[in-house]
């Protein structure tokens, strides 16, 4: 006989005992959320009363462009809310400052397909034409020195002269959610195989500037909202 109901009274308290399969017991789960930079602040605005400030902390990793909020830090069930800045795809697709080397023809094709990222399409097609007709002259100067102790040293000075412009400008957003900026970009040529890579010290400076400005703004608001939360920089 299944699903029978038995009523039992113990010291005036009525207990109900049912036969059959009991509901499954589910353990609480960790809450792990990855969102935009202000996600930790938004979470605190709605859930701060659920967690004592002394059981929460913030981890800031500027290299990873992230702010991580950890709640229930002393318990086995964690709540971790991570907010991150994300570089814009229009900036990353060209491989600026990532050390990627391409042939002049490959770089020309990439520029041609992304000419909207230049200040003007004419500027884009001009550099595409120069890359398609890439010419370079490598000048080498070798100096060999010896001393009476048998030591030798070989010095090599190598210069690449090409028809490529020293620099050009792009009009691209650096981070998602931010507007476009004019950045100066240089084409570096590997003297060994004449492959090319793009570098931009200006873009690197701007990324660090906007990163620190955005992260510090979030931290100021978190401290104002919950001054008891400890903030760690890693």
UniProtKB/TrEMBL annotation:
Q: What is this protein called?
A: Uncharacterized protein
Which top-rank group of organisms is this from?
Bacteria
Organism in which the protein naturally occurs: Albibacterium profundi
């Amino acid at each position: 006989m299944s699903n029978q109901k038995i009523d039992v009274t113990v010291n005036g308290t009525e207990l109900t005992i049912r036969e059959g399969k009991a509901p499954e017991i589910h353990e609480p789960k960790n809450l792990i959320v990855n969102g935009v930079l202000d996600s930790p602040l938004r979470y605190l605005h709605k859930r701060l009363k659920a967690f004592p400030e002394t059981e929460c902390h913030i981890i800031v990793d500027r290299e990873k462009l992230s702010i991580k909020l950890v709640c229930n830090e002393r318990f086995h069930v964690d709540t971790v809310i991570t907010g991150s800045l994300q570089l814009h795809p229009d900036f990353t697709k060209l491989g600026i400052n990532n050390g990627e080397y391409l042939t002049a023809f490959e770089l020309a094709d990439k520029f041609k397909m992304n000419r909207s990222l230049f200040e003007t399409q004419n500027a884009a097609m001009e550099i595409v034409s120069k890359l398609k007709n890439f010419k370079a002259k490598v000048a080498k100067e070798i100096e060999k020195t010896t001393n009476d102790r048998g030591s030798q040293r070989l010095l090599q000075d190598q210069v690449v002269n090409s028809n490529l412009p020293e620099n050009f400008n792009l009009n691209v957003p650096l981070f998602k959610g931010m507007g476009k900026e004019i950045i100066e970009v240089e084409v570096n040529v590997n003297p060994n195989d004449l492959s090319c890579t793009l570098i931009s010290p200006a873009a690197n400076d701007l990324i660090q500037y906007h990163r620190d400005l955005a992260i510090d703004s979030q931290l100021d608001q978190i401290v104002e909202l919950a001054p008891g939360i400890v903030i760690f920089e890693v």
